[in-house]
Amino acid sequence: MPQLVGLECALCNAPIASVLDGEFCATCGNPVHKRCATPNVAKSGACAVCGADATAGAAHRQRSREEATQHRRHSRRYHILSGLVWLGAGLGYLAYGFAALVVTVWYDGDLFFNWIIKIIFGAILTVRGLTHVRALWRMRRDASRKPADIKGADPFDAEH
């Protein structure tokens, strides 16, 4: 969702200074001051809720879609890179723990339990990496669904 602060009101063309002063119209998507909104205006082409030009909200909806696409791209990169790092660290620490177990049992003969901590820590890191990969698969699955089917979808995504 685009940021409201700093956008111009669709009715008075003055910048919106605070989220308390303005809002996005629920019908057309235009940013409007709360004091400027005049519902049920009988002008042709005007939004019935806020009174602004109903077609002007298309630019804001387009910007919202572009921001959401950019966010998804960055989110995918983050999950790929962090998932690989966590998986690598976890598997490496697991290998280190099992190597410590072998060395302890094979050479020392006594069971010093330092290797258990290494294995548990490696398992935790590996699970963390797998959750990032799972999130990546979930994003991929959500990309094939319609936005209206996804919980929390942008209400302005469908053209009015």
Q: What is the CA-based Rg, rounded?
A: 27 Å
Q: What's the β-strand tally? A: 2
Strand order of the largest sheet: 1-2
Please outline the major beta sheet. 2 strands, antiparallel
Counting structural domains, the number is 2
Mean pLDDT: 76
Quaternary arrangement of the chains shown? Answer: single chain
List the helices and strands and how they pair.
Layout: E1 22-24, E2 31-33, H1 57-108, H2 114-143
Antiparallel strand pairs: 1-2
Helix pairs in contact: 1-2
Question: Could you please describe the fold and organization of this structure?
Answer:
This protein is mostly helical. The chain has two domains: 1-52, no CATH class; 69-147. It is 51% helix and 4% strand. The model is unreliable at 156-160 (pLDDT under 50).
Q: How is this structure best summarized?
A:
The protein contains 2 helices and 2 strands.
Summary tags:
two-stranded antiparallel ribbon, 160 residues, rod-shaped, 2 domains, 51% helix, mainly alpha
